[in-house]
Structures are given as structure tokens and as C-alpha cells.
Task: inverse folding
């Protein structure tokens, strides 16, 4: 009964979404308060219906109801409860339902928190959000019904891919989806603004918290996925430029550009068309990512069951989501005039450079990801584009971006004083040189590139500090008042400094862990020791271990340094009898300065075990940096200015602009 | 007006410069960093020059896996037409088995052996990597051609 009710709830939600996507639009056009009010009620209703539907699916997984095809295919009675629950979204149908639930969650949140917006605008945003929901519920109902029954019901399920039986599954996909789906709201804001033909600083102020939520969740989601890959795959790496990783990175890059261009719209009433385009494309990339993962065109650890119909359906959604708004854009773009002119050397100019470089980086990643698909389609030739390609193209675009970043934050709006900014940056340059020297003398393996990476981090961190000091009026007011002025800076000032510091921390992590990684592959018997970067690793014991639904051969390793015991690590080769597959569990001991990472391999003919050891210096910094960025976005969201009623838009000023100004720069 | 025009000119030229730069980067990187796909038959027939990065797909020949010291492994890969020796140092994936389809990434050595830097096997026993299927298909095709020719 429960699955039928849950299915019914989904069908009703589809109807409600249809209403939400049409009537409020008519209401907004005719200024009919009743129809306008319908938008919020419909959003709430959908959220309730989907919560029931998704909750029911989780319940069916928890009680292992194998009369449901989806549960039968992806679960097993012997699985620990945590993985029964998380297994709900460890498959295509369940994860799609989670996706739709997050969509309706955002709809309800907008209905609840969008009080500062005019009712007509809010109704239009909700209507566009409703259209996205219509498309995705239709996708679920027609191609991927999670509530399909199986008759007769089997006694036992077929289990879940052991790689997914990990706490990582509890956090990585939901975070990622909040990010992906969060960009549907910013998309809805962009399309609603196109319908109204109005983009102004207050629009930017309304959309900004949503961009921040989506961006911060996507950042965390990607970082969690990367950390998961690091400890689960046992390859010692944390990013593989796998097509599916790229699929989540594309909306992140575009979203990062959006995050910055919105500031220009808010502060300077400029860069409007470009911002609208970014909002549309960021969601487009989210959809593209979904398509790549679910259509089976790619083979990767993430590939869900292959079904061409599903791929076609998402491609259709993607096409409509891009073509419709772009036509609307072509019609409305000439009306979006900038009111604020500016010099090339200015905060705006620097942010445009930021956007151009991020857009170029997005293009490079997009091309590297899709090129093999195109080539195979056109010539039938199978190729793969691997990490060397991305390192050779992506990094050269990131370096100038990070070089310009701190200078840009010190430039004034409209017309900046480059010499003054550079003078302020001379202190950051000292930090950069200091860090480069540290890098050069810490490890003999350091190359010029390593020193440059560290210098870049010092430059960014110094720039973040100078940014705060400048905003606190250094040199313009007395030193005694500096601390008080620093404390009274708005949250968003700290957010920028913290986020850019996060970038610096991540850059250090990436540079150090790739330049100074030590990898040793060896054969070990009981009592054998192996040195890796000053650590002595001894294989103490190998023996069978029994888990809830697996059996393992577990190796126990003692890690010592200079005779001092550091840690006891275990690494398993687990076999999951239900699924008939095996996984390797890695042993890691982590601190701020290094990870020691042990993987046990197969036993060879001579009774020895193949063992792979890694020493990864500063690798945790990669994820600490991303955490700082995500936290910064939350700090920025808490900024007072977005909570209290937004000031009136500068309409009078826009009207006073020259009669026929050139279309917006950057469009 | 004048400054707006100048500004737009600057922006457009900057964008073009960046576009050109990115394109140049992509083209040089693509030239050097693409791994083409090949099957054992193509390697044995000398259709591929040594030292070029490749993805090699095939089935692991039964009884061919030899473990050496310090994680060195040698085994043979076949597409049922030809087979080639593969050398790899490292931990084989969990689902590496004799008779299974796998993908090795690396390059042909001058001695005609394939030196793999990475070995991939899917984490699902029922699954055949598309590259392996492709290699078998190509070999099949070649065999039929040879039969027709002789």
C-alpha cells in the first residue's frame, strides 16, 4: 500500500507542479493576487508530497521490501542499517527522487524566505522552478519509477555495489544535489528576470543568497567526493579528471564566475546580460552533468544502469532549458542597459578578467570531457583524454586568475589606482617569496613549479589580509582605531578574505601533495619493514576478519618514525559474497602535515603480499581549503544586508543614463 | 560614449586573446596527451609505434599471470587473435582475474611488450569494459577478413 500511495503522491505532485508553472505566470501578468498566491501554496504542497514519497522509499529500503524492484536490485537484508538508508540514493531511480525532493525543498524555501521580493516576481520565479520540477517528475514517472512492483516478491535482494557501502554515500550525493539543484533556483531567477525584462541591483541582492547556498553545497559535495575517492579507491590520488568529476566541476566553475559577476550587478548595476547568461549556463552544466552520469555515454565509477531513453529524456530537458531562456534572452538583452561605466583598471575590470578566465577554464574542461564522445560519434575512434591534458590546459588559466585575484580585491570600483594596489600588495609579495623559499628548502624534490605554487598561495593569503586591512582604512585613519574598524567590517568582507584564503590553502595542498608524494610498491611478509619518507612501516599481521556482510583478509601495519610509534593501520581486501565482488579498504593516518597511506594487495606465489605505501605531505590542506571556501559562503549569506529589507533599486539613476548607451559590456 | 567604445574594444580584444590562448593550449595538449585505444592484434601486427600512450583492452590469458618481486606482474592479454605480454608494477584491481576483460594504460616497449602504468577492471563481475568488447570485435572482424582472403 505504501509504495502505491508514494507513487500517487508523485503523480499528484506532477499535477501541482503543472499548476505552479502556468497559473502564477498568468496571475503575474494580470496582477491577480489569487493566482500569484497560488505559487507559494503549490510549492509547499509539492514539498509535502515529495517528502512523503521520498520518505516512503527510504522506509521501503529500511524494511527491505523486496516486492519493490528498485529495493530488490539495490539492497540486501544483511546490509547494515546505515547502508540500507543511504542505499536509497545509491542507484538511479532513488537518487533521482532525492533530486526531485531537493527541487521541491528549494521551492518551499523560496516560498518561505522570499518575502523581500515583489509578489509578482516571486510568483514568476516559482513558476519557472515549477517547470523544472515538471520536467524532472515526468522523467521519474515515465522512465525511472522507483516504486515499480515485482511479482512474485523475491526473498532476498541482490545487494548494493560494495564501493558505495561507505559513510561517504550518506553525504556526498545529497550535498552535490543541493548544489546542482540549488542552481535551478538561480536559473529560475534569471528566467523570471528575463520575463519581467528587469535586472537591477535589488535582483542581484535577492538571488545572491541562493547562489551562495548552491555554490557552497556544490563545493562541499565535490570536496567530499574527492576525499571519498582518495580513501576508497586506494590509488593515493584525490582527483582523476574523470569525466564524471569534470561533470560536477563544470557547474562549479560557472557558478564561481556567477558568484563574482553578481557582485558587479549588485554594486555597480553593470554586467547584467553576462550574469543572466551565466545563471542559465550554470544550471545547464548541472543538467549536462546529470546527463553524462545517467545516460551511460561515459564509463566511470559513477555510471548508473545504462538506458538510452533516460539519456534522451535528460538531453531533451537540457535542450529546452537552454533554448527557451536563450530565445527570451535574445529578445530582452537590448533592454538590459548598464548604468555604471567604468575604467578597465577597476574592481569591475578585475572581476571581468576573473569571469573571462573562469569561462575559458570551463570551456577547456568541457572540451576535454566531451571531445572523446564527439570523436567516437564522428569517426568511431575511441580515445581517452586524461589528466595530462587537463593539467596542461587548466593550470595555465588558473595561474593568471590567482595572480590577478588579490590585486583586483584592492582596486576601487569604477576607477582603480593600480599603483596603490600594487604598493599594498608588496607585503603580499614578501609572503609569497617567503613561502617559495620555505618550499624550496623543505624538500629537495621541489621544482620551480613547486616554489611558484607556494608563492601563489602566499600572494593570495597576503592579498586577503591586505584586503581586510584596506577595508578597515589602513593608512587613512589612525592605527589605534584599526582593530575596532576591523571588527565592524561587514560579514561579506570577511567572507571574501576567508574564501580567498581557502583558495590559498587548497593551492598549497595540491602543490605539496603532488610534488612531494612518495610512493613505494613492495612485497612484504610478516615482520618485514619498509621505509617511506622517514616513516618505518612494518607488516605485523595478516588475518581473516568478518564484517556484517563481508569477509576480509586484513593486514595490520605498525607505523613508526625514529623508533617512536605513530599509528597502527589496517588495510583490508574485502569480499562481499552477496554482490560477488571485492573492494580494498585503505589504512590512513592523517595529521595537518602528512598522511601515511597503506594499501594491501594480493598474495603472490611466494607467500608475500604486494603492498603499496604513500606519504602524502599536506594533502589534507586540499579539503581544508575547500571547507574554508564553503564556510565563507555561509558567512557571506549571514551578512546583515541580505536579511533586512533591501534598499530601493536605483531606477532613477538608470533612467538618467544616456539615451542610447552601448549594450552591456561583456554581453 | 568614447570610453564605452574603447572599453568594449578592450574587452573584445581581451576575450579574443584569451580564446586564442585557450585554443592554442587545447590543441597542443590534445596533440600530446590523448590516449588512443588499441587491441592486442594491432600491437602485435606493428600498427602502433612504441612509446605512444595507449589504452589496451583484452582478456587476461588463463595461467599467464606471473608475480615478480616488489609488485611486478606480468601477464598476457588476448583478443583471441593475438596476444601480447603486459608488464605492470603495482596492485592489481580487486576484480583482476584470469579470463576477465581488463584495460591497461601504458605504452609499447621497443621489445614489443606493453608496459602498463595503470590497469583497470570494472567493479562488477558481469560487466565487460566497452574497450574489451571493441577489441574482441575488431579481432573477430580481422579474422573474418583473413579467412575470406586465404
Result:
Amino acid at each position: 500500500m505504501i509504495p502505491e500511495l508514494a507513487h500517487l503522491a508523485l503523480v499528484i505532485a506532477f499535477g501541482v507542479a503543472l499548476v505552479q508553472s502556468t497559473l502564477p505566470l498568468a496571475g503575474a501578468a494580470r496582477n491577480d493576487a489569487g493566482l500569484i498566491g497560488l505559487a507559494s501554496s503549490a510549492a509547499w504542497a509539492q514539498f509535502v508530497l515529495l517528502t512523503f514519497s521520498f520518505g516512503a522509499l527510504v522506509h521501503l529500503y529500511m524494511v527491505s521490501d523486496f516486492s519493490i524492484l528498485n529495493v530488490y536490485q539495490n539492497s540486501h537484508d544483511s546490509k547494515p542499517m546505515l547502508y540500507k538508508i543511504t542505499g536509497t540514493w545509491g542507484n538511479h531511480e532513488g537518487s533521482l527522487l532525492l533530486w526531485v525532493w531537493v527541487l521541491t525543498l528549494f521551492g518551499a524555501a523560496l516560498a518561505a524566505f522570499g518575502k523581500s521580493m515583489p509578489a509578482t516576481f516571486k510568483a514568476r520565479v516559482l513558476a519557472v522552478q515549477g517547470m523544472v520540477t515538471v520536467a524532472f517528475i515526468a522523467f521519474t514517472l515515465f522512465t525511472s519509477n522507483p516504486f515499480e512492483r515485482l511479482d512474485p516478491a523475491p526473498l532476498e535482494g541482490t545487494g548494493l555495489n560494495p564501493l558505495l557501502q561507505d559513510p561517504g554515500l550518506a553525504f556526498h550525493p545529497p550535498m552535490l544535489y543541493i548544489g546542482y539543484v540549488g542552481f535551478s533556483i538561480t536559473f529560475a531567477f534569471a528566467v523570471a528576470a528575463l520575463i519581467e525584462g528587469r535586472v537591477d541591483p535589488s535582483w542581484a541582492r535577492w538571488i545572491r543568497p541562493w547562489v551562495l547556498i548552491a555554490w557552497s553545497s556544490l563545493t562541499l559535495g565535490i570536496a567530499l567526493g574527492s576525499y571519498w575517492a582518495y580513501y576508497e579507491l586506494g590509488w593515493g590520488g584525490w582527483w582523476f579528471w574523470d569525466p564524471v568529476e569534470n561533470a560536477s566541476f563544470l557547474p562549479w566553475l560557472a557558478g564561481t564566475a556567477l558568484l563574482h559577476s553578481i557582485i558587479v550587478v549588485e554594486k555597480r548595476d553593470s554586467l547584467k546580460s553576462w550574469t543572466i547568461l551565466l545563471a542559465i549556463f550554470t544550471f545547464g552544466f548541472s543538467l549536462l552533468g546529470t546527463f553524462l552520469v545517467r545516460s551511460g555515454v561515459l564509463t566511470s565509477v559513477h555510471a548508473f544502469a545504462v538506458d538510452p531513453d533516460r539519456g534522451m529524456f535528460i538531453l531533451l530537458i537540457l535542450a529546452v532549458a537552454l533554448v527557451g531562456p536563450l530565445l527570451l534572452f535574445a529578445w530582452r538583452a537590448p533592454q538590459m542597459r548598464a548604468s555604471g561605466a567604468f575604467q578597465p583598471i577597476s574592481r569591475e575590470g578585475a572581476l571581468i578578467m576573473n569571469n573571462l578566465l573562469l569561462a575559458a577554464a570551463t570551456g577547456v574542461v568541457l572540451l576535454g570531457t566531451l571531445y572523446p564522445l564527439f570523436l567516437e560519434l564522428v569517426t568511431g575512434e575511441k580515445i581517452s583524454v586524461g589528466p595530462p591534458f587537463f593539467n596542461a590546459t587548466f593550470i595555465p588559466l588558473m595561474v593568471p586568475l590567482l595572480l590577478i585575484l588579490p590585486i583586483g580585491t584592492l582596486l576601487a570600483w569604477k576607477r582603480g589606482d593600480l599603483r596603490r594596489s600594487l604598493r599594498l600588495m608588496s607585503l603580499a609579495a614578501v609572503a609569497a617569496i617567503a613561502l617559495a623559499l620555505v618550499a624550496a628548502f623543505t624538500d629537495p624534490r621541489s621544482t620551480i613549479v613547486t616554489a611558484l605554487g607556494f608563492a601563489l598561495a602566499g600572494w593570495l593569503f597576503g592579498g586577503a589580509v591586505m584586503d581586510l586591512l584596506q577595508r578597515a582604512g589602513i593608512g587613512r585613519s589612525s592605527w589605534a582605531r584599526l582593530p575596532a574598524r576591523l571588527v565592524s567590517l561587514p560579514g561579506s568582507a570577511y567572507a571574501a578574505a576567508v574564501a580567498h584564503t581557502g583558495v590559498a590553502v587548497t593551492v598549497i595542498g595540491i602543490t605539496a601533495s603532488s610534488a612531494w608524494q612518495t610512493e613505494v610498491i613492495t612485497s612484504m611478509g610478516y615482520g618485514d619493514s619498509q621505509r617511506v619518507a622517514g616513516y618505518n612501516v612494518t607488516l605485523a599481521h595478516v588475518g581473516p576478519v568478518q564484517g556484517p556482510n563481508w569477509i576480509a583478509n586484513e593486514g595490520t601495519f605498525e607505523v613508526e618514525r625514529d623508533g617512536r610509534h605513530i599509528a597502527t593501520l589496517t588495510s583490508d581486501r574485502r569480499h562481499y559474497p552477496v554482490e560477488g565482488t571485492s573492494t580494498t579498504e585503505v589504512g590512513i593516518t592523517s595529521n595537518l602535515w602528512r598522511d601515511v597511506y597503506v594499501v594491501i594487495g594480493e598474495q603472490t606465489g611466494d607467500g608475500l603480499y604486494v603492498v603499496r605505501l604513500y606519504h602524502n605531505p599536506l594533502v589534507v590542506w586540499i579539503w581544508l581549503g575547500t571547507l574554508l571556501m564553503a564556510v565563507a559562503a555561509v558567512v557571506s549569506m549571514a551578512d546583515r544586508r541580505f536579511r533586512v529589507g533591501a534598499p530601493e533599486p536605483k531606477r532613477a539613476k538608470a533612467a538618467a543614463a544616456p539615451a542610447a548607451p552601448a549594450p552591456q559590456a561583456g554581453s | 560614449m568614447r570610453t564605452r567604445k574603447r572599453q568594449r574594444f578592450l574587452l573584445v580584444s581581451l576575450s579574443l586573446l584569451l580564446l586564442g590562448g585557450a585554443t592554442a593550449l587545447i590543441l597542443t595538449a590534445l596533440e600530446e596527451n590523448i590516449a588512443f585505444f588499441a587491441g592486442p592484434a594491432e600491437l602485435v601486427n606493428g600498427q602502433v609505434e612504441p612509446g605512444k600512450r595507449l589504452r589496451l583492452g583484452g582478456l587476461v590469458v588463463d595461467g599467464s599471470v606471473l608475480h615478480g618481486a616488489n609488485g611486478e606482474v606480468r601477464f598476457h592479454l588476448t583478443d583471441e587473435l593475438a596476444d601480447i605480454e603486459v608488464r605492470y608494477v603495482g596492485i592489481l584491481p580487486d576484480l583482476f582475474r584470469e579470463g576477465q576483460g581488463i584495460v591497461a594504460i601504458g605504452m609499447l616497449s621497443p621489445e614489443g611488450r606493453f608496459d602498463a602504468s595503470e590497469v583497470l577492471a570494472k567493479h562488477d563481475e558481469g560487466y565487460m569494459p566497452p574497450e574489451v568488447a571493441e577489441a574482441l570485435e575488431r579481432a573477430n572482424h580481422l579474422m573474418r577478413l583473413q579467412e575470406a582472403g586465404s
About this structure: Chain B has two domains: 1-33, 36-149. Residues 123-127 of chain B have pLDDT under 50 and may be disordered.
